[in-house]
């Protein structure tokens, strides 16, 4: 079950993180490496990590860069959202679903230390004892970790959990060496195919092949590129121009939908469009009047034409979902028709609630999709007698403090990208302030239920939240990747926390 702040760690891929920290070696110039040759790949992104410690710093930018690339997990998710082998070559689960036996592959940390079951025990226990970020609650269900042998780790859960193994595909499943955690903010030590070579603040992070990843004693397929430069851009225009001019090879995620046609018409590039876990949510502050009245929440939801909003905010790209469940989740059910655009019904509900005239603040992250969506929402709500005061807040610092932490808002908009984050509605302390005994009970029952009942139980949760208009799920954020045609191995879907570089290669190489 998620605890308070459990989705903070995955709020929008554009999350910029906590206070700046210096990184040794940051004077190495990454820009000079861009386009340096066929062994170098330059990827354009918008979310620059301000440090490399995702054990104490929430946000999506650090795992986007480091997860699977520098840090590996026992299990990972593929582009279809399926759980696959990682550092664990295989695993067995007891009949009562409380004991997991992981059989580990040979691997070596970038500092030369071998990866063993002792590191599994250290890493899991460290999440429970030392991590401070929101996602750490995913490890609460673990009772103990046993070292059965050097390459055999046993994890014992307090109760059956349908969600725990998937949680292990996220950053909380990252494996650490006890000798490599002294300076996580500046010096990551992992078993992944890449190592952090240098960083230029406000510009780039350079990853180079980890020399310890594949050795004669431990052969593993090397990544296709010797060097990867992660280049960070403050706005969509600069990002697009960098690809058009040859300064980068890949845009990890297009942030301006109107720029897509120019890439589609240019035979130098390939455009891949897929899905994400990123629900763009109009949050209602359920603990604050008048939004503590279900009639008001329903009225606001009926008053917004989500199809028109998607067209205006993202050129019609993306998907209407109507719940906190993306199509890649096994319990997805299309609830997008639950609240059809109906301003007359919205007015009636507002009259019933005694609010024919209403004024609400809409404090949104100052990100393009959020600001565009807010303008459409304000226009639609004005037609039913609701005046909306839009206030863009600097993201992440101001938004995280004012909206997420202090819950000082009426409505807000941000994208939530944490996998299976519907569980946040089971936490009354989460920023939407939604407190439902029924939802909390259903979530607990679903997590412990036999697998055959899990999907049906989670659908009950989604329907209950929809019936209560606990929030307004505007649309599912699309994943649009643009790359030079010679870059191979990219996937259309982005359903993990990682921008996984491990399978990328240049055309004509193996």
UniProtKB/TrEMBL annotation:
Classification via PROSITE patterns: PROKAR_LIPOPROTEIN (PS51257)
Segment forming the signal sequence: 1-24
The answer to whether keyword Signal applies is: yes
Query: Mind telling me which residue stretches traverse the membrane in this protein?
Result: none
Q: Does the keyword Hydrolase belong to this entry?
A: no
- Alphabetical list of InterPro entries matching this protein: Peptide/Ni-bd, SBP_5, SBP_5_dom
Q: Which Gene3D superfamilies match?
A: Dipeptide-binding Protein, Domain 3, Periplasmic binding protein-like II
Per UniProt, which keywords does this protein have?
Signal
In this record, what's one Pfam family? Answer: SBP_bac_5
All copies of domain Solute-binding protein family, residue ranges = 82-416
UniProt protein name: ABC transporter substrate-binding protein
